[in-house]
Amino acid sequence: MWIKKVHIVGFGQFNEQTFDFVQGLQIVQGLNEAGKTTLHQFLFDMLFGFPQAKGRKINTYEPLNKGPYGGSMQFEVDGQLYELERLGRTQTATTLTAVATGQQFADPEAMLTKLLGPVDRDLYLAIFSFDQAALMNIFSLKPDDFASYLRTLATPGAQNWLEVANRWEKTATAKFGSTKTAHRELNQALANLKTQRQQLQNKIRQQPSLDKLQAEAQHLSQRVTSLQQRQEQIQGQMSHQQAQVHLVPVYRRWQQIKQQVKATGKSLDLTVADKADRVRQQLAALDEVMVTTAVTKQQVESATVALRQLEKLEKQQQTLAEQQVKSVQAQNELLEKYHWTQIPPLLTEQQKARLGGQRETTQANSDYRWLIVAAIICVVVIIGALLAGHWMIGMLLAVLVLVISWWGSRRPEQTKTTLNGSQDLPAAYQQMSANDIFAVQADIQHINDMMSSNNQIIHDQQAMMPELVKVRAALNWLGEGLTVDEYRKRLADIHIKQETMGQQQLQRANLQQTLQDLYQELGVKDAAMLRQRRDAQRHINDLQREANVLEEQLKDADLHELAAQAVVKPDDQPEADEQQHILKRIQDEKNQLNQKLAEINVQLQNLQTDNTIEHQQQVVANQVAVVNQQLTQYFVDRLGSEWIRQALNAAIADRLPNLLTQAGVILSRLTDNHYQMIQQTKTLLKVVRDDGKILGVNQLSKGTAEQLYVALRLAFIKTVAAALQLPLLIDDAFVDFDNQRRQTMLNVLKDLASSEQQIFYFTAQKTPGEQVLELTHQQ
Length: 779
Description:
Blueprint: E1 2-11, E2 14-20, E3 25-29, H1 36-48, E4 70-77, E5 80-87, E6 93-98, E7 103-104, H2 108-116, H3 121-127, E8 129-131, H4 143-154, H5 158-175, H6 185-205, H7 211-263, H8 270-288, H9 297-338, H10 349-388, H11 391-410, H12 434-474, H13 484-522, H14 527-553, H15 559-566, H16 576-606, H17 611-651, H18 655-670, E9 675-680, E10 685-689, E11 694-696, H19 702-719, E12 728-731, H20 739-753, E13 759-763, E14 772-774
Helix pairs in contact: 5-17, 6-17, 7-14, 7-15, 7-16, 8-13, 9-12, 9-13, 10-11, 18-19
């Protein structure tokens, strides 16, 4: 069969996707989640039907886009091209069409079964499909499994004949049980026969004339039993010795490992070692972020004192400057108020006295003028009111005029008086009234006081300059021309660095002390020595695991005997020929005793004259007949079942050895001739190494065991290739193979595919080649 093309309508992540395949080795590669397993499952389900059940453990690959489920497949069988279509998962609509003629088969499943031959879903999974997990089946695989598959494929109707054989085997087993406590029909009949014979013997022994013969027969029976026991003992010893000889190398290796482990002394405490590594990593991480500064604590303290002095001096200077500004502002306001260009001097006492006399004369004249004006206005108002006939209004207006006149006479005279006659006053006072001159004297005195204070301020500022220069010089290492806040910030940063550095140094010292304590507890000096101890401990652990495996093989052995045999050379051990000679002598003596015992039994039977013995003998004979009849039917069923099995096995008598031979050739190629042959027992597979040593599957490495499984699968496919060719589906089964093993495996698959065997190899590995189908997430 050659699958040429599939079209996926909806299956998992694929939607309306078409894939064309080549005949031979078809490599399908893609990253995880690209759809390799989905495509693999689609090919398998198209051949054998979609899964009907649904649950957490069953992936039905429902379309992610919730669209239609299914698709179609074109495949070629014996030169005839067919197209198979399955749509729907639970109620699948299936059609099978011969492309060349357009014929659509009425029963597509029956026709598909005919095209697939004797291969059903389970047999296909067992032979033509496997993945990484299936490779582990090599540890439980038995040669009989392959024989069963070969019988099914090589002999038409073999499965029906096997069912008949199993039925006969079951019938025979129901009649007779092999255990002593079985109570089945034939077991009970034999037990009854034994009881009746025992009764017969008892009756014979009851004959007084038969005592001597009975005693001699008993003696002979005991001797035969003794010889039988001796024979079984020797045979057991021979079997035991043979088994012990195979275990001597295992015991020697086990003892060697134990001595090596013991010689290493105290094992490494991995918990403490891991803790030491973590502490060392913390030290390394701390060194990477370690804060350093060259500034000393004394420098910081001196700078702090200088900064306080600088702040104090600058505040003083700021205060003095503000006072200067206030003085200048007051002076400018006074100049602007009186339109002066400069502040005039204060008046002398004499000037104040003269200016005071002029102000009183002016005031008296002013009062007199107000009274005259008020009298005139009152007279005018009264006359006007009388003429108008409103004498009340006239009186009110007269009173109002008198009040206003009184208020005006009380108001200070603001009339400017020219003091040109006073030649001793400064020019700034010439255009001012006497009242203004007296009023401005307080402001001038205040300005003069402020100017005196400014002179003192200037003197104080000049006195502070040397100290200010000295303080700034002490702070220059922090930066020149900085403000107090900038100096304070830099000092704070340095202080934080110093504190951080101190904490880190303390933490580092603690970590170093802890690391040294851990090293001392582990008995090492440094990390390099600890790595050496770890490597040594890993080696000891490997030896211990090997010792555990060897100890498991020796669990049923006599260690004391193995210890004795381990120091004995092989030439010093007893020869098997001598034991065989002893067994032959015992057997000869047993034959002689059995013959003599048979003669005595004949004599005893001849001496029986009473009817009781005859009756008992008849009873025994009847029981023997019953047993013989049941035994006949038992052996008919048993032999019939065995005959069917032998006949079926004869049909594949040369195929299973041929399969193992071809598997050995493939394994030799896969392992570069390191393993050259595969042998079998009824239940075990073994391989022969290039040094001639025979190893069981459980003694192989995981990679070699997986190669053995692949070799058996490929050999089986080659064995049945003449009668049956179905596509081989391999889903990323070689992920544990190294590059060389994987390349060798690809070469073997290419050679197998070259003989018209189609192989699908799904892999996430980048694989060179021309017949590569690349799957991407976009698909």
